[in-house]
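step 4 of 6: structure.
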Amino acid sequence: MSIEISNLTKTYKVKGREITALNNISLSIKEGEFVGLLGPNGAGKTTLTKILATLVSPDQGTAFINNINIKNSKKIRQLIGPLFGENGGRSLYYRLSIYDNLIFYSSLAGVPKKIAKKRINLLLDYFELDKYRDVLVMKLSTGMKTKVLFIRTLIPNPKILLLDEPTLGFDANTSDKARNILEYFNKKFKTTIILTSHNFQEVDSLTERIVLIDKGKIIKDCAPESFKQLASKNFIDIHFSMKKFNKEIFSALISQVIGGQLVEIKRKEISKNANIFNARIVAKKFPIIETIALLNSMIVERGGKVFQLQPYQPSLKEAFLAYLNSSEKKYEENIEQKIKISNR
Amino acid sequence: MVNVIEILPFFVEKSKKHNFFQKTKAIIEAKIKTALNYKSAFFMTLFLNIVYFFMFYFFGENDISIKIHGVSISYFQYAFVGLSLQMVVGTALASTEQNILQEIITGTWSSTFFFFNIIEYALGTSIAGIFLSSFSILVSYFIATVFLRVPFWFSLNFTIYIAILFLLIMLSYISISIFFSSISIWYKKNIGLTKMFYELTKAFTGITFPIILLKGYPVAWFFSRIMPLTYGLEGIYATLFSEDFVRSVLVNASILGGFTFIIGIFGVILVNLSLKKIRKEGSVSIY
Protein backbone atom coordinates (compact mmCIF):
# COMPACT_ATOMS: atom_id res chain seq x y z
CA MET A 1 0.00 0.00 0.00
CA SER A 2 2.38 2.66 -1.28
CA ILE A 3 1.96 6.41 -1.37
CA GLU A 4 3.21 8.54 -4.26
CA ILE A 5 3.08 12.31 -3.94
CA SER A 6 4.09 14.53 -6.86
CA ASN A 7 4.47 18.29 -6.88
CA LEU A 8 1.82 18.85 -4.28
CA THR A 9 1.02 22.49 -3.61
CA LYS A 10 -1.57 23.97 -1.30
CA THR A 11 -2.19 27.62 -0.63
CA TYR A 12 -4.72 29.07 1.79
CA LYS A 13 -6.27 32.51 1.46
CA VAL A 14 -6.51 34.18 4.84
CA LYS A 15 -7.95 37.71 4.95
CA GLY A 16 -6.70 38.52 1.49
CA ARG A 17 -3.22 37.08 2.13
CA GLU A 18 -1.99 33.90 0.55
CA ILE A 19 -0.28 31.41 2.81
CA THR A 20 1.59 28.57 1.13
CA ALA A 21 1.17 25.50 3.29
CA LEU A 22 2.78 23.06 0.85
CA ASN A 23 5.19 24.15 -1.82
CA ASN A 24 5.62 21.68 -4.65
CA ILE A 25 6.50 18.66 -2.52
CA SER A 26 7.15 15.17 -3.80
CA LEU A 27 7.45 12.09 -1.69
CA SER A 28 7.39 8.32 -2.10
CA ILE A 29 6.46 5.97 0.71
CA LYS A 30 6.65 2.21 0.24
CA GLU A 31 4.22 -0.27 1.66
CA GLY A 32 4.95 -1.04 5.30
CA GLU A 33 7.16 1.98 5.88
CA PHE A 34 6.90 3.80 9.17
CA VAL A 35 7.58 7.44 8.44
CA GLY A 36 7.83 10.32 10.88
CA LEU A 37 6.84 13.80 9.77
CA LEU A 38 8.68 16.49 11.68
CA GLY A 39 8.58 20.21 11.40
CA PRO A 40 7.84 23.39 13.30
CA ASN A 41 4.28 24.62 13.77
CA GLY A 42 2.81 25.78 10.48
CA ALA A 43 5.30 23.78 8.41
CA GLY A 44 2.62 21.96 6.44
CA LYS A 45 2.56 18.57 8.17
CA THR A 46 -1.14 18.58 9.03
CA THR A 47 -2.04 19.95 5.59
CA LEU A 48 -0.16 17.08 3.97
CA THR A 49 -1.89 14.55 6.22
CA LYS A 50 -5.32 16.08 5.54
CA ILE A 51 -4.71 16.01 1.79
CA LEU A 52 -3.89 12.30 1.99
CA ALA A 53 -7.00 11.84 4.15
CA THR A 54 -9.02 13.57 1.36
CA LEU A 55 -10.26 16.23 3.77
CA VAL A 56 -8.42 18.97 1.88
CA SER A 57 -7.94 19.15 -1.86
CA PRO A 58 -4.56 20.28 -3.22
CA ASP A 59 -4.23 23.22 -5.60
CA GLN A 60 -1.68 21.48 -7.78
CA GLY A 61 0.03 18.14 -8.00
CA THR A 62 -1.13 14.61 -7.50
CA ALA A 63 -1.11 11.96 -4.84
CA PHE A 64 -1.76 8.27 -5.29
CA ILE A 65 -2.42 5.71 -2.60
CA ASN A 66 -2.09 2.16 -3.86
CA ASN A 67 -2.22 3.59 -7.40
CA ILE A 68 -5.58 5.22 -6.67
CA ASN A 69 -5.74 8.97 -7.17
CA ILE A 70 -6.79 10.83 -4.01
CA LYS A 71 -9.47 12.53 -6.13
CA ASN A 72 -11.28 9.21 -5.85
CA SER A 73 -12.01 9.97 -2.23
CA LYS A 74 -14.55 7.18 -1.75
CA LYS A 75 -12.00 4.44 -2.56
CA ILE A 76 -9.17 6.15 -0.71
CA ARG A 77 -11.24 6.45 2.49
CA GLN A 78 -11.67 2.69 2.56
CA LEU A 79 -7.91 2.25 2.72
CA ILE A 80 -6.87 4.79 5.30
CA GLY A 81 -7.35 5.45 8.99
CA PRO A 82 -6.77 9.09 9.87
CA LEU A 83 -6.39 10.44 13.39
CA PHE A 84 -6.12 14.13 14.15
CA GLY A 85 -5.15 14.48 17.78
CA GLU A 86 -5.49 18.30 17.66
CA ASN A 87 -9.27 17.75 17.83
CA GLY A 88 -8.85 16.62 21.44
CA GLY A 89 -11.68 14.14 21.17
CA ARG A 90 -14.09 16.58 19.56
CA SER A 91 -14.68 14.22 16.68
CA LEU A 92 -16.54 11.88 19.03
CA TYR A 93 -20.23 12.17 19.83
CA TYR A 94 -20.32 13.69 23.28
CA ARG A 95 -23.70 12.30 24.20
CA LEU A 96 -22.79 8.74 23.34
CA SER A 97 -20.74 6.41 25.51
CA ILE A 98 -17.25 5.23 24.54
CA TYR A 99 -18.67 1.88 23.47
CA ASP A 100 -21.52 3.38 21.40
CA ASN A 101 -19.08 5.72 19.66
CA LEU A 102 -16.75 2.87 18.78
CA ILE A 103 -19.56 0.59 17.58
CA PHE A 104 -20.93 3.43 15.45
CA TYR A 105 -17.63 4.21 13.76
CA SER A 106 -16.85 0.52 13.31
CA SER A 107 -20.12 0.10 11.41
CA LEU A 108 -19.24 3.01 9.17
CA ALA A 109 -15.85 1.47 8.48
CA GLY A 110 -17.48 -1.80 7.39
CA VAL A 111 -16.31 -3.93 10.34
CA PRO A 112 -18.83 -6.74 11.01
CA LYS A 113 -20.51 -6.19 14.37
CA LYS A 114 -19.29 -9.41 16.00
CA ILE A 115 -15.68 -8.68 15.07
CA ALA A 116 -16.00 -5.02 16.02
CA LYS A 117 -17.26 -5.95 19.49
CA LYS A 118 -14.32 -8.28 20.02
CA ARG A 119 -11.76 -5.71 18.87
CA ILE A 120 -13.37 -2.95 20.93
CA ASN A 121 -13.35 -5.09 24.08
CA LEU A 122 -9.71 -6.04 23.60
CA LEU A 123 -8.53 -2.51 22.88
CA LEU A 124 -10.54 -1.00 25.74
CA ASP A 125 -8.92 -3.55 28.02
CA TYR A 126 -5.46 -2.89 26.58
CA PHE A 127 -5.77 0.87 27.08
CA GLU A 128 -7.40 0.43 30.49
CA LEU A 129 -10.67 2.00 29.46
CA ASP A 130 -12.92 -1.04 29.91
CA LYS A 131 -14.50 0.21 33.10
CA TYR A 132 -15.40 3.49 31.35
CA ARG A 133 -17.02 1.84 28.33
CA ASP A 134 -20.52 3.06 29.23
CA VAL A 135 -19.45 6.55 30.29
CA LEU A 136 -20.53 9.42 28.03
CA VAL A 137 -17.60 10.90 26.14
CA MET A 138 -18.34 14.38 27.50
CA LYS A 139 -17.36 13.14 30.97
CA LEU A 140 -13.90 11.94 29.91
CA SER A 141 -10.59 13.72 30.29
CA THR A 142 -8.70 14.92 27.19
CA GLY A 143 -6.24 12.03 27.39
CA MET A 144 -9.03 9.48 27.62
CA LYS A 145 -10.82 11.00 24.63
CA THR A 146 -7.60 10.78 22.62
CA LYS A 147 -7.29 7.12 23.65
CA VAL A 148 -10.79 6.52 22.29
CA LEU A 149 -9.82 8.24 19.03
CA PHE A 150 -6.74 6.05 18.87
CA ILE A 151 -8.80 2.90 19.39
CA ARG A 152 -11.33 4.07 16.82
CA THR A 153 -8.58 4.43 14.23
CA LEU A 154 -7.19 0.95 14.86
CA ILE A 155 -10.45 -1.03 14.88
CA PRO A 156 -10.87 -1.33 11.09
CA ASN A 157 -7.14 -2.22 10.77
CA PRO A 158 -6.69 0.08 7.78
CA LYS A 159 -3.82 -0.44 5.35
CA ILE A 160 -2.53 3.05 5.98
CA LEU A 161 -2.53 4.97 9.22
CA LEU A 162 -2.29 8.76 9.05
CA LEU A 163 -1.55 9.80 12.61
CA ASP A 164 -1.32 13.50 13.38
CA GLU A 165 -0.35 13.96 17.04
CA PRO A 166 -2.05 10.70 18.00
CA THR A 167 -0.69 10.61 21.55
CA LEU A 168 -1.51 14.16 22.60
CA GLY A 169 -2.43 14.08 26.27
CA PHE A 170 -1.22 10.51 26.85
CA ASP A 171 0.60 9.67 30.05
CA ALA A 172 3.91 7.78 29.88
CA ASN A 173 2.34 4.35 30.33
CA THR A 174 -0.27 4.93 27.62
CA SER A 175 2.35 6.35 25.26
CA ASP A 176 4.34 3.14 25.69
CA LYS A 177 1.28 1.03 24.93
CA ALA A 178 0.46 3.13 21.88
CA ARG A 179 4.02 2.77 20.61
CA ASN A 180 3.94 -0.99 21.16
CA ILE A 181 0.73 -1.51 19.29
CA LEU A 182 1.78 0.69 16.37
CA GLU A 183 5.02 -1.22 16.12
CA TYR A 184 3.19 -4.53 16.03
CA PHE A 185 0.66 -3.30 13.45
CA ASN A 186 3.51 -2.08 11.29
CA LYS A 187 5.51 -5.30 11.57
CA LYS A 188 2.72 -7.89 11.51
CA PHE A 189 0.23 -6.31 9.10
CA LYS A 190 2.74 -4.25 7.10
CA THR A 191 0.61 -1.23 7.83
CA THR A 192 2.07 1.89 6.27
CA ILE A 193 2.19 4.56 8.96
CA ILE A 194 2.77 8.28 8.69
CA LEU A 195 3.28 9.72 12.14
CA THR A 196 3.33 13.42 12.93
CA SER A 197 4.40 14.03 16.46
CA HIS A 198 6.29 16.44 18.65
CA ASN A 199 7.14 13.51 20.90
CA PHE A 200 10.67 12.97 19.63
CA GLN A 201 11.25 9.84 21.65
CA GLU A 202 8.23 8.31 19.93
CA VAL A 203 9.38 9.31 16.46
CA ASP A 204 12.95 8.20 17.14
CA SER A 205 12.00 4.78 18.52
CA LEU A 206 9.26 3.92 16.03
CA THR A 207 10.11 5.34 12.66
CA GLU A 208 12.63 4.10 10.15
CA ARG A 209 12.54 7.31 8.18
CA ILE A 210 11.90 10.94 9.03
CA VAL A 211 10.75 13.64 6.67
CA LEU A 212 11.49 17.11 7.89
CA ILE A 213 9.13 19.75 6.52
CA ASP A 214 9.65 23.46 6.95
CA LYS A 215 7.68 26.28 5.32
CA GLY A 216 5.93 23.82 3.03
CA LYS A 217 9.05 22.19 1.65
CA ILE A 218 10.77 18.90 2.40
CA ILE A 219 14.12 19.82 3.90
CA LYS A 220 15.43 16.43 4.94
CA ASP A 221 14.34 12.89 4.17
CA CYS A 222 16.50 10.30 5.88
CA ALA A 223 16.64 7.76 8.69
CA PRO A 224 16.56 9.23 12.21
CA GLU A 225 20.09 7.94 12.83
CA SER A 226 21.39 9.70 9.71
CA PHE A 227 19.73 12.93 10.79
CA LYS A 228 21.33 12.70 14.23
CA GLN A 229 24.72 11.85 12.72
CA LEU A 230 24.49 14.84 10.39
CA ALA A 231 23.72 17.02 13.38
CA SER A 232 26.47 15.46 15.50
CA LYS A 233 29.07 17.07 13.23
CA ASN A 234 28.16 20.30 14.97
CA PHE A 235 27.53 19.20 18.55
CA ILE A 236 30.15 19.55 21.26
CA ASP A 237 30.04 18.13 24.76
CA ILE A 238 32.30 19.84 27.31
CA HIS A 239 33.10 19.31 31.00
CA PHE A 240 34.76 22.36 32.53
CA SER A 241 35.17 24.27 35.75
CA MET A 242 34.90 27.96 36.50
CA LYS A 243 35.23 29.90 39.72
CA LYS A 244 32.76 32.65 38.91
CA PHE A 245 30.06 31.52 36.55
CA ASN A 246 26.97 33.27 35.18
CA LYS A 247 24.79 31.36 32.72
CA GLU A 248 23.57 34.40 30.75
CA ILE A 249 27.08 35.76 30.31
CA PHE A 250 28.39 32.34 29.33
CA SER A 251 25.62 31.90 26.76
CA ALA A 252 26.31 35.35 25.31
CA LEU A 253 30.04 34.56 25.08
CA ILE A 254 29.29 31.29 23.26
CA SER A 255 27.19 33.21 20.76
CA GLN A 256 29.47 36.22 20.26
CA VAL A 257 32.98 34.84 20.71
CA ILE A 258 32.75 31.37 19.16
CA GLY A 259 29.63 31.84 17.03
CA GLY A 260 27.82 28.91 18.59
CA GLN A 261 24.69 28.20 20.58
CA LEU A 262 24.44 26.91 24.11
CA VAL A 263 21.93 24.03 24.02
CA GLU A 264 22.15 22.81 27.59
CA ILE A 265 24.20 23.39 30.73
CA LYS A 266 24.16 21.44 33.98
CA ARG A 267 26.04 21.94 37.20
CA LYS A 268 27.83 18.67 37.98
CA GLU A 269 29.74 19.43 41.16
CA ILE A 270 29.99 22.25 43.60
CA SER A 271 33.26 22.58 45.42
CA LYS A 272 34.97 25.27 47.52
CA ASN A 273 37.16 26.57 44.75
CA ALA A 274 35.22 25.99 41.54
CA ASN A 275 32.01 24.65 40.04
CA ILE A 276 32.14 21.87 37.48
CA PHE A 277 29.73 22.07 34.57
CA ASN A 278 28.65 19.95 31.65
CA ALA A 279 27.56 21.92 28.63
CA ARG A 280 26.33 21.04 25.14
CA ILE A 281 27.06 23.53 22.42
CA VAL A 282 26.18 23.66 18.73
CA ALA A 283 28.81 25.04 16.37
CA LYS A 284 27.20 27.41 13.88
CA LYS A 285 29.53 30.05 12.57
CA PHE A 286 32.80 28.11 12.39
CA PRO A 287 33.66 24.49 11.60
CA ILE A 288 33.57 22.23 14.63
CA ILE A 289 37.36 21.92 15.02
CA GLU A 290 37.79 25.69 15.06
CA THR A 291 34.87 26.03 17.46
CA ILE A 292 36.43 23.51 19.84
CA ALA A 293 39.70 25.47 19.79
CA LEU A 294 37.94 28.78 20.41
CA LEU A 295 35.84 27.29 23.21
CA ASN A 296 38.91 25.89 24.94
CA SER A 297 40.74 29.24 24.74
CA MET A 298 37.69 31.16 25.92
CA ILE A 299 37.32 29.08 29.10
CA VAL A 300 41.04 29.00 29.92
CA GLU A 301 41.41 32.80 29.41
CA ARG A 302 38.69 33.33 31.98
CA GLY A 303 40.45 31.22 34.62
CA GLY A 304 38.56 28.01 33.94
CA LYS A 305 39.74 24.46 33.31
CA VAL A 306 38.58 22.10 30.58
CA PHE A 307 38.39 18.45 31.65
CA GLN A 308 36.75 16.90 28.62
CA LEU A 309 35.87 18.27 25.20
CA GLN A 310 34.46 16.11 22.42
CA PRO A 311 31.83 15.96 19.67
CA TYR A 312 28.70 13.99 20.59
CA GLN A 313 25.60 12.56 18.91
CA PRO A 314 22.54 14.57 19.90
CA SER A 315 19.09 13.17 20.50
CA LEU A 316 16.56 13.60 17.72
CA LYS A 317 14.99 16.48 19.62
CA GLU A 318 18.32 18.30 20.04
CA ALA A 319 19.17 17.75 16.38
CA PHE A 320 15.77 19.00 15.31
CA LEU A 321 15.87 22.09 17.55
CA ALA A 322 19.37 22.96 16.45
CA TYR A 323 18.33 22.57 12.83
CA LEU A 324 15.28 24.78 13.41
CA ASN A 325 17.33 27.55 15.00
CA SER A 326 19.86 27.52 12.21
CA SER A 327 17.17 27.54 9.53
CA GLU A 328 15.38 30.46 11.25
CA LYS A 329 18.62 32.37 11.44
CA LYS A 330 19.31 31.70 7.73
CA TYR A 331 15.77 32.85 6.94
CA GLU A 332 16.26 36.07 8.93
CA GLU A 333 19.67 36.65 7.30
CA ASN A 334 18.07 36.15 3.88
CA ILE A 335 15.42 38.72 4.70
CA GLU A 336 18.05 41.20 5.98
CA GLN A 337 20.07 40.68 2.79
CA LYS A 338 17.02 41.29 0.64
CA ILE A 339 16.24 44.48 2.57
CA LYS A 340 19.86 45.70 2.11
CA ILE A 341 19.77 45.00 -1.65
CA SER A 342 16.48 46.78 -2.10
CA ASN A 343 17.73 49.82 -0.15
CA ARG A 344 20.78 50.34 -2.40
CA MET B 1 -5.07 -6.90 31.13
CA VAL B 2 -4.40 -8.05 27.57
CA ASN B 3 -1.11 -7.59 25.80
CA VAL B 4 -0.55 -6.77 22.14
CA ILE B 5 0.16 -10.38 21.12
CA GLU B 6 -3.29 -11.42 22.32
CA ILE B 7 -4.95 -8.60 20.37
CA LEU B 8 -3.38 -9.04 16.97
CA PRO B 9 -5.05 -12.30 15.83
CA PHE B 10 -8.45 -10.54 16.00
CA PHE B 11 -7.34 -7.95 13.49
CA VAL B 12 -6.57 -10.35 10.69
CA GLU B 13 -10.06 -10.38 9.16
CA LYS B 14 -10.52 -7.53 6.71
CA SER B 15 -13.28 -4.97 6.87
CA LYS B 16 -15.99 -5.04 4.23
CA LYS B 17 -16.50 -2.21 1.79
CA HIS B 18 -18.59 0.67 3.00
CA ASN B 19 -22.24 -0.29 2.68
CA PHE B 20 -25.14 2.19 2.17
CA PHE B 21 -27.64 0.34 4.36
CA GLN B 22 -25.13 -0.46 7.09
CA LYS B 23 -24.05 3.18 7.32
CA THR B 24 -27.60 4.54 7.21
CA LYS B 25 -28.64 2.07 9.92
CA ALA B 26 -25.60 3.05 12.01
CA ILE B 27 -26.49 6.73 11.94
CA ILE B 28 -30.17 6.01 12.74
CA GLU B 29 -29.08 4.05 15.82
CA ALA B 30 -26.52 6.66 16.87
CA LYS B 31 -28.95 9.59 16.51
CA ILE B 32 -31.72 7.78 18.41
CA LYS B 33 -29.29 6.87 21.21
CA THR B 34 -28.05 10.46 21.31
CA ALA B 35 -31.60 11.87 21.42
CA LEU B 36 -32.53 9.47 24.23
CA ASN B 37 -29.61 10.86 26.20
CA TYR B 38 -31.45 14.17 26.15
CA LYS B 39 -34.38 12.61 28.03
CA SER B 40 -35.70 15.81 29.54
CA ALA B 41 -35.74 17.55 26.14
CA PHE B 42 -37.53 14.58 24.57
CA PHE B 43 -40.27 14.47 27.18
CA MET B 44 -40.61 18.25 27.22
CA THR B 45 -41.19 18.26 23.44
CA LEU B 46 -43.71 15.45 23.76
CA PHE B 47 -45.50 17.32 26.56
CA LEU B 48 -45.58 20.58 24.58
CA ASN B 49 -47.01 18.81 21.54
CA ILE B 50 -49.80 17.37 23.67
CA VAL B 51 -50.49 20.82 25.12
CA TYR B 52 -50.70 22.14 21.55
CA PHE B 53 -53.28 19.49 20.70
CA PHE B 54 -55.35 20.37 23.73
CA MET B 55 -55.21 24.01 22.67
CA PHE B 56 -56.73 23.20 19.30
CA TYR B 57 -59.23 20.79 20.85
CA PHE B 58 -60.61 23.50 23.12
CA PHE B 59 -60.52 25.99 20.25
CA GLY B 60 -62.61 23.49 18.29
CA GLU B 61 -65.11 23.30 21.15
CA ASN B 62 -66.30 26.71 19.95
CA ASP B 63 -68.63 24.72 17.73
CA ILE B 64 -66.80 25.47 14.49
CA SER B 65 -67.59 22.94 11.82
CA ILE B 66 -65.83 22.53 8.54
CA LYS B 67 -66.98 20.94 5.30
CA ILE B 68 -64.38 18.83 3.49
CA HIS B 69 -65.42 17.20 0.22
CA GLY B 70 -69.02 17.84 1.24
CA VAL B 71 -68.58 16.13 4.62
CA SER B 72 -69.16 18.15 7.80
CA ILE B 73 -66.59 17.49 10.46
CA SER B 74 -65.56 19.20 13.69
CA TYR B 75 -62.72 21.64 13.64
CA PHE B 76 -60.57 19.38 15.78
CA GLN B 77 -61.12 16.41 13.46
CA TYR B 78 -59.94 18.62 10.64
CA ALA B 79 -56.95 20.12 12.46
CA PHE B 80 -55.75 16.86 13.99
CA VAL B 81 -54.42 15.51 10.68
CA GLY B 82 -52.40 18.61 9.87
CA LEU B 83 -51.16 19.08 13.44
CA SER B 84 -49.89 15.49 13.61
CA LEU B 85 -48.07 15.84 10.33
CA GLN B 86 -46.72 19.29 11.14
CA MET B 87 -44.53 17.97 13.93
CA VAL B 88 -43.06 15.18 11.87
CA VAL B 89 -42.66 17.43 8.83
CA GLY B 90 -40.70 19.85 11.01
CA THR B 91 -38.37 17.02 11.95
CA ALA B 92 -37.92 15.89 8.34
CA LEU B 93 -37.23 19.49 7.30
CA ALA B 94 -34.74 20.22 10.05
CA SER B 95 -32.97 16.89 10.57
CA THR B 96 -30.30 16.98 7.90
CA GLU B 97 -29.45 20.65 8.06
CA GLN B 98 -29.61 21.01 11.84
CA ASN B 99 -27.63 17.84 12.41
CA ILE B 100 -24.92 19.02 10.03
CA LEU B 101 -24.74 22.38 11.81
CA GLN B 102 -24.55 20.58 15.14
CA GLU B 103 -21.74 18.37 13.82
CA ILE B 104 -19.84 21.44 12.59
CA ILE B 105 -20.16 23.15 15.97
CA THR B 106 -19.32 20.11 18.10
CA GLY B 107 -16.45 18.93 15.90
CA THR B 108 -17.76 15.64 14.56
CA TRP B 109 -18.25 17.08 11.07
CA SER B 110 -14.91 15.94 9.64
CA SER B 111 -15.64 12.35 10.68
CA THR B 112 -19.18 12.56 9.25
CA PHE B 113 -17.81 14.05 6.04
CA PHE B 114 -15.23 11.26 5.87
CA PHE B 115 -17.67 8.39 6.17
CA PHE B 116 -20.98 9.54 4.69
CA ASN B 117 -22.39 10.81 1.47
CA ILE B 118 -25.25 13.29 1.82
CA ILE B 119 -28.03 10.83 0.91
CA GLU B 120 -26.94 8.28 3.53
CA TYR B 121 -26.64 11.02 6.12
CA ALA B 122 -29.94 12.72 5.23
CA LEU B 123 -31.91 9.48 5.30
CA GLY B 124 -30.25 8.26 8.50
CA THR B 125 -30.74 11.45 10.51
CA SER B 126 -34.27 12.05 9.16
CA ILE B 127 -35.48 8.51 9.83
CA ALA B 128 -34.13 8.73 13.38
CA GLY B 129 -35.85 12.09 13.90
CA ILE B 130 -39.15 11.01 12.30
CA PHE B 131 -39.19 7.84 14.38
CA LEU B 132 -38.83 9.82 17.60
CA SER B 133 -41.27 12.57 16.69
CA SER B 134 -43.83 9.98 15.56
CA PHE B 135 -44.34 9.26 19.24
CA SER B 136 -46.10 12.62 19.38
CA ILE B 137 -48.60 11.50 16.75
CA LEU B 138 -49.27 8.19 18.46
CA VAL B 139 -49.66 9.72 21.92
CA SER B 140 -51.88 12.50 20.53
CA TYR B 141 -54.05 10.00 18.63
CA PHE B 142 -54.36 7.90 21.77
CA ILE B 143 -55.39 10.91 23.85
CA ALA B 144 -57.80 12.16 21.18
CA THR B 145 -59.60 8.86 20.73
CA VAL B 146 -59.52 7.43 24.26
CA PHE B 147 -59.86 10.50 26.48
CA LEU B 148 -61.42 13.14 24.27
CA ARG B 149 -63.54 10.56 22.38
CA VAL B 150 -62.98 12.26 19.06
CA PRO B 151 -64.26 9.86 16.42
CA PHE B 152 -61.87 8.98 13.60
CA TRP B 153 -62.58 6.49 10.95
CA PHE B 154 -59.72 4.54 9.37
CA SER B 155 -59.82 1.36 7.38
CA LEU B 156 -56.93 -0.65 6.02
CA ASN B 157 -57.51 0.71 2.50
CA PHE B 158 -57.10 4.25 3.76
CA THR B 159 -54.00 3.35 5.71
CA ILE B 160 -52.06 2.29 2.62
CA TYR B 161 -52.85 5.47 0.70
CA ILE B 162 -52.10 7.63 3.71
CA ALA B 163 -48.84 5.74 4.27
CA ILE B 164 -47.76 6.39 0.66
CA LEU B 165 -48.61 10.07 0.96
CA PHE B 166 -46.86 10.27 4.34
CA LEU B 167 -43.71 8.72 2.86
CA LEU B 168 -43.73 11.13 -0.07
CA ILE B 169 -44.29 14.11 2.23
CA MET B 170 -41.32 13.05 4.34
CA LEU B 171 -39.11 12.53 1.29
CA SER B 172 -40.03 15.92 -0.13
CA TYR B 173 -39.11 17.69 3.11
CA ILE B 174 -35.91 15.68 3.43
CA SER B 175 -34.97 16.84 -0.07
CA ILE B 176 -35.60 20.46 1.00
CA SER B 177 -33.43 19.86 4.06
CA ILE B 178 -30.64 18.58 1.82
CA PHE B 179 -30.96 21.73 -0.26
CA PHE B 180 -30.77 23.96 2.83
CA SER B 181 -27.81 21.91 4.10
CA SER B 182 -25.78 22.98 1.09
CA ILE B 183 -26.13 26.59 2.23
CA SER B 184 -25.25 25.76 5.84
CA ILE B 185 -22.18 23.82 4.71
CA TRP B 186 -21.10 26.69 2.47
CA TYR B 187 -21.48 29.39 5.11
CA LYS B 188 -20.97 27.17 8.18
CA LYS B 189 -23.81 28.82 10.01
CA ASN B 190 -27.56 28.71 10.42
CA ILE B 191 -29.07 31.37 8.18
CA GLY B 192 -32.64 30.67 9.28
CA LEU B 193 -34.07 29.26 6.03
CA THR B 194 -35.31 26.09 7.71
CA LYS B 195 -37.20 27.99 10.38
CA MET B 196 -38.71 30.36 7.81
CA PHE B 197 -39.82 27.49 5.60
CA TYR B 198 -41.30 25.65 8.57
CA GLU B 199 -43.30 28.68 9.68
CA LEU B 200 -44.60 29.16 6.12
CA THR B 201 -45.51 25.47 6.07
CA LYS B 202 -47.47 25.80 9.32
CA ALA B 203 -49.27 28.89 8.07
CA PHE B 204 -50.16 28.13 4.47
CA THR B 205 -50.57 24.40 3.87
CA GLY B 206 -54.02 23.76 5.33
CA ILE B 207 -53.00 22.64 8.81
CA THR B 208 -55.27 24.94 10.79
CA PHE B 209 -57.68 26.09 8.09
CA PRO B 210 -58.65 24.89 4.59
CA ILE B 211 -56.41 26.57 2.03
CA ILE B 212 -59.40 27.45 -0.14
CA LEU B 213 -59.69 30.47 2.18
CA LEU B 214 -56.41 31.79 0.72
CA LYS B 215 -57.77 32.03 -2.81
CA GLY B 216 -58.38 35.76 -2.69
CA TYR B 217 -54.83 36.43 -1.45
CA PRO B 218 -52.31 35.88 -4.25
CA VAL B 219 -49.12 35.92 -2.16
CA ALA B 220 -50.50 33.53 0.44
CA TRP B 221 -51.95 31.34 -2.33
CA PHE B 222 -48.54 31.26 -4.02
CA PHE B 223 -46.86 30.12 -0.79
CA SER B 224 -49.44 27.42 -0.29
CA ARG B 225 -48.84 26.11 -3.81
CA ILE B 226 -45.08 25.77 -3.38
CA MET B 227 -45.26 23.83 -0.10
CA PRO B 228 -45.22 20.04 -0.46
CA LEU B 229 -47.40 19.53 2.62
CA THR B 230 -50.29 21.32 0.83
CA TYR B 231 -50.45 18.47 -1.68
CA GLY B 232 -49.91 15.84 0.97
CA LEU B 233 -52.80 17.15 3.06
CA GLU B 234 -55.04 17.48 0.02
CA GLY B 235 -54.42 13.81 -0.74
CA ILE B 236 -54.97 12.74 2.88
CA TYR B 237 -58.20 14.74 3.30
CA ALA B 238 -59.46 13.29 0.03
CA THR B 239 -58.63 9.77 1.26
CA LEU B 240 -60.44 10.35 4.56
CA PHE B 241 -63.50 12.26 3.36
CA SER B 242 -64.01 11.84 -0.38
CA GLU B 243 -65.41 8.88 -2.27
CA ASP B 244 -63.40 9.69 -5.40
CA PHE B 245 -60.05 9.81 -3.57
CA VAL B 246 -57.87 7.62 -5.83
CA ARG B 247 -57.52 10.31 -8.49
CA SER B 248 -56.63 12.90 -5.86
CA VAL B 249 -54.07 10.59 -4.30
CA LEU B 250 -52.48 9.86 -7.68
CA VAL B 251 -52.27 13.54 -8.64
CA ASN B 252 -50.92 14.70 -5.30
CA ALA B 253 -48.51 11.77 -4.99
CA SER B 254 -47.15 12.55 -8.47
CA ILE B 255 -46.62 16.19 -7.53
CA LEU B 256 -44.86 15.19 -4.31
CA GLY B 257 -42.74 12.64 -6.17
CA GLY B 258 -41.75 15.18 -8.81
CA PHE B 259 -40.95 17.78 -6.17
CA THR B 260 -38.77 15.31 -4.27
CA PHE B 261 -36.93 14.29 -7.43
CA ILE B 262 -36.20 17.81 -8.68
CA ILE B 263 -35.33 19.43 -5.33
CA GLY B 264 -33.48 16.29 -4.22
CA ILE B 265 -31.20 16.19 -7.26
CA PHE B 266 -30.63 19.93 -7.11
CA GLY B 267 -29.91 19.68 -3.38
CA VAL B 268 -27.39 16.84 -3.79
CA ILE B 269 -25.57 18.74 -6.55
CA LEU B 270 -25.38 21.88 -4.41
CA VAL B 271 -24.20 19.91 -1.35
CA ASN B 272 -21.43 18.34 -3.39
CA LEU B 273 -20.42 21.80 -4.65
CA SER B 274 -20.34 23.07 -1.06
CA LEU B 275 -18.27 20.09 0.03
CA LYS B 276 -15.86 20.71 -2.83
CA LYS B 277 -15.55 24.32 -1.72
CA ILE B 278 -14.76 23.52 1.92
CA ARG B 279 -12.22 20.89 0.86
CA LYS B 280 -10.53 23.45 -1.34
CA GLU B 281 -10.50 26.00 1.49
CA GLY B 282 -9.26 23.37 3.93
CA SER B 283 -12.12 24.31 6.25
CA VAL B 284 -13.69 20.88 6.79
CA SER B 285 -12.58 20.88 10.41
CA ILE B 286 -12.61 24.38 11.84
CA TYR B 287 -14.69 25.43 14.79
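step 5 of 6: annotate
 - The longest strand of chain B covers residues 65-68.
 - Chain B has a mean pLDDT of 85.
step 6 of 6: archive
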